[in-house]
Amino acid sequence: ITPVIVEPDDLYVMGTLEGQAWEANAGKKMSYDAENKVYTYAIENPEEIQIAFTTKLGANKDDWDGIAAYRWGADTDGNDFVFESQYLGQELSLVQTGEPGHAFVLPAGNYAVSVNMETHKVTFAGEITPVIVEPDEAYIMGVIGEQQWAANAGTKMAYDAENKVYTYSVESENALQIAF
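RE: above sequence
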């Protein structure tokens, strides 16, 4: 007996993307590419998001029981799948689940999402946006004048906001041992 796989009429991305909340009746409809038998959607998110998929939206925002049989997520042991750059372009398994968890946690970035419901696989192509954290303060540590190496000993560096540069000037006849 050969099973017959029926593609769903619609597939939605649900979760915290594009200002959307986790609500049973909220989802972004994916486009269907009949030639390649995949659903596609472009995601541009400036911050971390959590997503899953569903073939049916709920009657209202709390209708989780009504869509439980239609929800698809990360094939994990019930935990969310934290996406990292090494997974870009790889097929990841989906599991049909109405249970909490199983979300894909995507860092900020731009993604082309492709879902093949025949194979129950999802692929995320694109790029992850690097998170650049600028410190509020910077200290120079080490043997500088009377200052010695210690975890709690450092001299605060001056910050040039226009050029976004921290600086510290010192004159010494001795060799310096420093770190930042």
